[in-house]
Amino acid sequence: MLGTGAALPDPDRAQSSILITLDNGKNYLFDCGEGSTRQMVRANINPADVGWVFLSHLHYDHICGLPFFVLSSWVFNRDGQLKVYGPRGTRDFVDHSFENGAFKVDIQARAAYGVRQKNIEAVRPLVTEVSPGLIYQDEHVRIYVDLVDHIPAEITDCFGIRLEAEGKVVAFSGDTAPCESMVRLAQDADLLIHECTFPESFLAHRAKSGVGTYSHTSPLELGKIAARAKVKQLVPTHFGHFDSTSPVIKRAAANHLPIDLMGPDMLDEVVRDLRKSYKGPISLAHDLMRIDL
């Protein structure tokens, strides 16, 4: 778990990012929010050794770390192109990030050196925009996505993800309100990593305030999803700063969170609500948590 936070710059949590490493050493990255590359290095993973990135949706806290990850991988001597999979709009985002966009000057300057020109393909990710179903397979893994309920569909798709490898299944929700597709994706999974952005009281406050989306899953609803899907282990993640004690976060959140309720005690409420439906193992996500299956 490289990043377990949400949209604000949280001093205790990087933004959404999950790294799955198989026994054969292959690395698959799911979402790439701010801080994910630094966390990768802290976990002793070379960014250049991560060959695949799967983006659940295009909110900035799930993708803004991708340019830094790509450029760092280049400097770390990635061999060949990174493969990026995501919803419609992903290709445009990537095209505007590198040689044709935001980091054009940086890349031109560094590419003047032979060692950087030698692996210039590293800053030319191969993008595949996907639709529901099987989106990637090789001799080691099969990866499926399905639509979930978060960003309005007329803007872009949002996906939940299911990875099958080495006889194990890991499901990841991205961001979503409770929906049937996540029950299907998580069916009998060995591990469900699911957003748990706000407790019930926080979702109700956001719905009234009209600030930001409230298309998220509360602990109460997540427990129901995990129980119905019969998952073997549950890791709630993407905590929306409700546990923060940072005065900066509290000031920034005053418009859309009930800041008088914020603090670590809210994590106890999260577990209590999850336990109303789900009786299996629960591990609340934290940055650099390692889960072995």
Automatic annotation (TrEMBL):
Q: Where is the Metallo-beta-lactamase domain?
A: 14-238
Matches recorded under CDD domains: arylsulfatase_AtsA-like_MBL-fold (cd07719)
Against Pfam families, the record matches this protein to: Anti-Pycsar_Apyc1
**Catalysed transformations (reactions):** Endonucleolytic cleavage of RNA, removing extra 3' nucleotides from tRNA precursor, generating 3' termini of tRNAs. A 3'-hydroxy group is left at the tRNA terminus and a 5'-phosphoryl group is left at the trailer molecule
Q: Which SMART domains match?
A: Lactamase_B
Family annotation (SUPFAM superfamilies): Metallo-hydrolase/oxidoreductase
Q: Which domain of life is it from?
A: Bacteria
State if Nuclease is listed as a keyword.
yes
Active site location = 61
**EC code(s) of this entry:** 3.1.26.11
Task: Give an example GO molecular function.
Answer: 3'-tRNA processing endoribonuclease activity
Q: How does it assemble?
A: Homodimer.
Report the function annotation for this chain. Answer: Zinc phosphodiesterase, which displays some tRNA 3'-processing endonuclease activity. Probably involved in tRNA maturation, by removing a 3'-trailer from precursor tRNA.
State the name under which the record lists this protein: Ribonuclease Z
Q: State the species of origin.
A: Paralcaligenes ureilyticus
Its ancestry begins with:
Bacteria, Pseudomonadati, Pseudomonadota, Betaproteobacteria, Burkholderiales
